Amino acid sequence: MTNESFDRRAGDGQFGLYDQSVLKRENAYTGKYLVLLDCQEEERGMQALRSQAGIAAAESVRGAEAENAVRVFDAPDMSALFPELGVAVIDVAPDQREALMTAAQEEPSVIAAEPERLVYISTITDRSREVKGYYPTYRSDEDVLKRHTTAAMAVSLGPAWDETAHTWGLQAVRANHTHLTGQGVRVAVLDTGVDTEHPDLSARIAGTASFVPGQSVQDGNGHGTHCCGTAAGPAEPQHQPRYGIAPGAEILAGKVLSNQGSGSDGQILAGIAWALSQGAKVISMSLGAPVSPGQLFSPVFESLAKRVVTAGTLIVAAAGNDGGPVNHPANCPSVLAVAAVGRALDVAPFSCRGQGLLGAEVNIAAPGVEVRSAWPMPQLYNTISGTSMATPHIAGIVALLGEAAPDATATELKKRLLSGAYRLAQAPASVGAGLGQAP
Q: Active-site residue numbers?
């Protein structure tokens, strides 16, 4: 078989193949594989892979101990199994990859397998120059804006907002008009970590964990601290204006991206397992990897997201900043893809658009241009742009909904979020249900 990914669709015994050759970009993959297992027969699946593909025994890593996965990620010949997720990150020798895929196809307890991707805080594609790569959101999104016409700039900047007391983003989602604070709800932000000593955030942090080898959860980038602040910054920050959507919610900061802004699918999986073990109601992921037009979503991440939703937790992810199709993993049907709008409530020129494929749509939009939030000391605050900035706005709104309806399932919270969105003039392919609104 020439493709390196497959999905055994439940019930029909068939394989859904998708060609990864269009994604052969330099440094796009780690060399490891993600394997989705039947949760009732995980050991049977792993045994089949061991006997037929010669993989080493995988270390079982439970969510509450997910930081133990770091040494597995750091070792080229080790594999990890996340039993609560039913997913394994497999290291396999290059000459055994075909054997692994063959074994996975033949073993019923293996549902899907695919190469492990690299993911980034931001992905920018300059299609006119055929230059592809990743750059930190705090730099590249502003560069993208500057490359657009003066008219587009005027639209994206829009009318003036009085930000004396509240940021324009907080006002746009009407978080300043609700009595809800997200009290009793935990928001997991899987990103570059957080400044644990930040005067606005230190009291809001309920738990931290790093899944990046050799790096603590302390944020050496800024991106993660900014996202934590937008989702659950305090009602009364050290310096005005207020920028946090759910000031009563608790922050779970999981470092799945390095200080340089990159990570892997396996690190995300470890972060998700940890977030579930810590009682997160919503998981915010301002990260991703680019996809090509027509490419289907990851079967492993989609099945995983379904399991997370069944467990009672929503995953929201950035649609992406390259202006192309919605990025991985936001393009999974069970992950909420968040687009960015500017001050005039028009879609930002860099924000990725949906395409006519299952799961490849934008679900909802939020403020993502010139967003002010927390930043590692000594700077304290920064104003940056990107779908990365839009995503924690939505995570904060989900926290508010979770406080209002503590017994609601993740599916019910999603319905309330989408039905409560403010309709925008742009097409759903760009903004989904519309602008997220606080209840």
A: 191, 223, 388
